[in-house]
Amino acid sequence: MIRPPLDRPGLVLRQMWSEGIVVMPGAFSALTALSAYKQGAKAVYLSGGAITNSVVGVPDIALITLAEMSGVAARACQVAPVPILCDSDTGFGEAWNVARTVIEMERAGLAGIHLEDQVSPKRCGHLDGKEVIATSQMQSKIRAAVSAKRDGSFVIIARTDARGVEGLGAAIDRAKAYRDVGADAIFPEGLISMEEFAEFRAALPGVPLLANMTEFGKTPLISASEFESLGYQMVIFPVTALRVMLKAVEEFYRDLLETGSQAGWIDRMRTRAELYETIDYDDFTRLDQEWS
Which residues contact 100 (CB under 8 A, 6 or more apart)? Predict the structure, then answer.
């Protein structure tokens, strides 16, 4: 059902992580955000990589625009009444671009965003060959982001990709520097073991931390409960749903083109009634009749 976004969703998210780890399935559209909510998700993550792949059909190399990202975010926030966190890459530019990014993303109804310290055009956080900007430059971006907030509870998460470039110690030093200029939480990208996640946690007592549980990357598969035991407040599963969907869609297209029929897939798809239930079709019809 279309509705105004949550009031102060950042405050809701902060309360949630104070009570236990927040598990955020990755979504890439309004429909997938709604589906995650309907399946019981208490918060949702919008992946920049998954949105770039699905909306533009290209790699996650800074080709998507702020308008495209904030548009997806706004539509997701209108149908999924839970705190939604959105990837904002490098802030779509320098400090003033970051300030505008915060304004647009907050206007969309998000609980918060994360900004990364990669050189643009950025790369997937689990690929080699990344570069990071100077710590002072990233601090400027964080100051701009904090300054641009209208609601003080809007969450600014600083992501550091330094682990794969400068080493774990440098990533920790950067995280401390980002905390010192106002980042609300830290997102250490590309850690390679539970031991590294534990070391990062120990180095930043009291700072909310977000873990990225992507697959096929540098991080081994770690469960949400394991991250919680390590002291992490949030865990995202950014591209998992996109990968699952794409595998199914490609298998269907191949079979359809070979057989000329979808008959073999009827039991593997959502029925019309199930789809309508997900998108609240009956509620739209009911309200339309009431308003008429």
Answer: 66, 92, 148
Per-residue model confidence as pLDDT tens digits over 10-45: 999 999 999 999 999 999 999 999 999 999 999 999
Q: What is the phi/psi pair of residue 207, to 5°?
A: -90, 125
- Given 75, 123, 124, 178, the catalytic residue: 124
Tell me the per-residue pLDDT of 156-193, one tens digit each, with 9 for 90 and over. Answer: 999 999 999 999 999 999 999 999 999 999 999 999 99
**Is residue 126 annotated as part of the catalytic site, yes or no?**
no
Catalytic residue among 117, 126, 179, 212: 212
Amino acid sitting at position 290: E
Answer yes or no: 116 catalytic. Answer: yes
What are 120-153's pLDDT values in tens digits? Answer: 877 776 767 789 999 999 999 999 999 999 999 9
All domains of the chain in start order, with CATH: 9-239 (3.20.20.60), 247-291 (no CATH)
DSSP track, 211-242:
EE--SSSSSPP--HHHHHHHT-SEEEE-SHHH
